[in-house]
Amino acid sequence: MSKRPLSVKIVFALPLVVTLAWALLGAARTIPFFEPLRAGQLMGMKVEDTDGQKIGTIRNLVLDTRTGNLKYAVIGSGGILGVHASLKLAPAQVLSAATAKRATLAIFATTERWKHAPVFKSSNLASFANPDRAQEISQYFEPSPTQASRAANNALSTTGHTSGQEAEGPPPVLRFASDLIGTRVVNQNQEKVGEILDLLVSFGRPRPAYAILSGGRFLRREQKYAVPLSALRPTDEGGKLQLNTDAGSLQQAPPFTRKIWDSRDTNRVDRIYRYSKTTD
Predict the structure, then answer these.
(1) Which CATH class for the 37-175 domain?
(2) pLDDT tens track for 235-260
């Protein structure tokens, strides 16, 4: 029985390979962008509006340490080399990292809309813990029905109203990401656990942020850990955060995986995970 030459087999197989490759590529394009983002890397990134115009750069991020949710991005516009820039707040839900441009974020707002957005002063951050003040900034960026339809197609959710659970619960505790990074973390016995190296956050739908901790007194110094930001509580001594843990819990910590990040599990807020850079 004669065998087909290798070149003939390749010719017959090539269309199948090409078809499969296009199918995989098409599937990849339909997957929503929910990768964990590093807060330290987001700062300084360019932001473009829906008209394709640059509106500024990320100057800081605002998180609610009570829930662990990323609330706002502080965007600086104008100024000379960032000095005397005009600062404005944008709700995390109207920002997206799913852009085709490197180191560029998208905001769901037109150039004209952004031009008239309220100016923000860092000294007024605490005022946004007030539900009325938070609702004011949220409603400003609320899209029209037509824009909302476009936002859904781009996997961006609207800011909407504060959920009933948050509205009835304790007020948010707002902190700048830049103030959290570098903060010392201790356990209930005031032993040093480590320091916050960075924060894992995401735009769009609310998702609890994680703090990446360095090695401390009883952590393996070459090992990093990821813990929910909401698990870190302020101590009586200012400038520190407390994490209820011990050496045994750290030794048994499971790896931090994409599945854990996607789960949005807020029931086990004290869970600690071993973290490696390959996770994100």
Answers:
(1) mainly beta
(2) 887 789 999 988 778 888 899 988 88
